[in-house]
Specification:
This protein is of the alpha+beta class. The chain has a single domain, classed as Beta-lactamase (3-Layer(aba) Sandwich). It is built from ten helices and 18 strands. Helix 2 runs parallel beside helix 5 and helix 2 packs across helix 9. It starts with a helix and ends in a 5-residue tail after the last helix.
Length: 385
């Protein structure tokens, strides 16, 4: 028997080595699958450029950039390329509110009227966060944005006060339904400013970006000329384009290949509902922090609030600024999508699995986010796209 012991040890060692090789090959295979899939998409006429990142509490697991940042100049999207992330900014607004609650400055169950004067009596901060306030969702100003050349003279407070006078009626009784409202996140920014004493953008920079040591050239509230930004493209579909033209006056459009290219550069009238420009890598660091046992941004109780279901009406559930997808109990995830002129974005957080994904596109089309399911499945189940 003693003679067999060394042989058994060698066999166990060889099997372990073989399994290690298989695991490495499997991991490599997943990365190749995703890269090939995304590269094929951007070679087609359906997608211009994109970034897809998978991250956990320790940082980036997988990161891939593909396609064109600028079709006219034939510039590729690289990992440093930034995109308008639009409504993913709302998650940062929600984190800011919970930070202020953690500091004892507010309670999300407080009435909004405790902090600022609005015509919507009885609504709470929580209802604004989860879109159950009954507020309308009007297109304010020039579709919530103004062109770069108008930025110096832009009066945010004037537009806000005009909006409160013009759009002052509920569309349903607060708490009885869920209806997405950008206007609600405008009001949240004024609560943040009232309590902190500084502009919304400054609050986020000082309390989220800087503590995480984010590169402010890769995540910011300025116009896209400030960073290495992907150019915005949207379909030449006449119906879709007419919507953009109606909402945003003064569009400067140039047709490039199969797309309308928006030459204008812009700022958001109210950055709290869509003003961040970032690359996937820098933006993901905010959520890597939230997945950690010891977060820099929030204490344990505050993180629990972020990931606790705050409201459910019919089949729609919200935590704080994040909708919940509970279709598959084994793969529940928190998510938010964003989009507007020339860009579409998506964040998913699989909290129980310990990872998240971000997809950024420089084309305007929410339907294009459907590839998220195929991409995420590779990490969840190993299913090929």
């Amino acid at each position: 028997m003693k003679n067999y012991i060394p042989l058994i040890i060698i066999m166990i060692f060889l099997v372990a080595c073989e399994q290690d090789i298989i695991n490495k090959d499997s991991k490599l295979s997943k990365e190749i699958q995703i890269k090939n899939y995304l590269n094929d998409l951007t070679k087609s006429s359906e997608y211009v450029g994109l970034q897809y990142i998978v991250f956990d509490k320790n940082g980036t697991i997988f990161n891939h950039s593909s396609g064109k940042s600028n079709l006219e100049k034939n510039i590729n999207v690289i990992d440093e390329t930034t995109f308008n992330i639009y409504s993913l900014t709302k998650i940062v607004t929600g984190i800011s509110i919970i930070q202020l609650q953690e500091k004892g400055k507010l309670d999300i169950n407080d009435k909004v009227s405790k902090y600022i004067d609005v015509p919507f009596k009885g609504i709470t901060i929580k209802q604004l966060l989860n879109h159950s306030s009954g507020l309308p969702n009007p297109f304010l100003g020039n579709g919530y944005l103004h062109w770069k050349e108008d930025h110096k003279g832009f009066d945010r407070d004037k537009l806000f006060n005009e909006a409160l006078k013009e759009h002052n009626e509920f569309i349903f009784k607060p708490g009885e339904d869920i209806e997405y409202s950008n206007f609600g996140y405008v009001i949240l920014s004024y609560i943040i400013e009232k309590i902190s004493g500084i502009k919304y953008e400054d609050y986020v920079i000082q309390n989220i970006f800087v503590p995480l040591k984010l590169d402010l050239s890769k995540i910011h509230f300025k116009d896209r000329s400030y960073s290495n930004s992907a150019e915005p493209y949207h379909s030449k579909n006449p119906f879709k384009f007419r919507i953009f033209e109606k909402v945003h006056k003064g569009l400067n459009i140039k047709i490039i290949e199969n797309y309308n290219h928006t030459k204008n550069k812009w700022y958001f009238d109210f950055p709290s509902m869509g003003g961040i420009i970032a690359n996937a890598s820098e933006f993901s660091k905010i959520f890597s922090d939230l997945l950690k046992e010891r977060s820099i941004l929030l204490n344990k109780n505050s993180k629990e609030i972020i990931f606790t279901k705050q409201t459910q009406i019919d089949n729609i559930s919200y935590s704080v600024s994040l909708e919940m997808n509970e279709d598959k109990k084994e793969n529940v995830f928190y998510f938010h999508n964003g989009g507007g002129i020339g860009y579409t974005s998506s964040l998913r957080l699989y909290k129980d699995k310990g990872f998240g994904t971000i997809l950024l596109l420089n084309t305007s089309d929410f339907a294009k986010l459907e590839i998220n399911d195929k991409l995420d499945d590779i990490f969840l189940k190993g299913i090929n796209p």
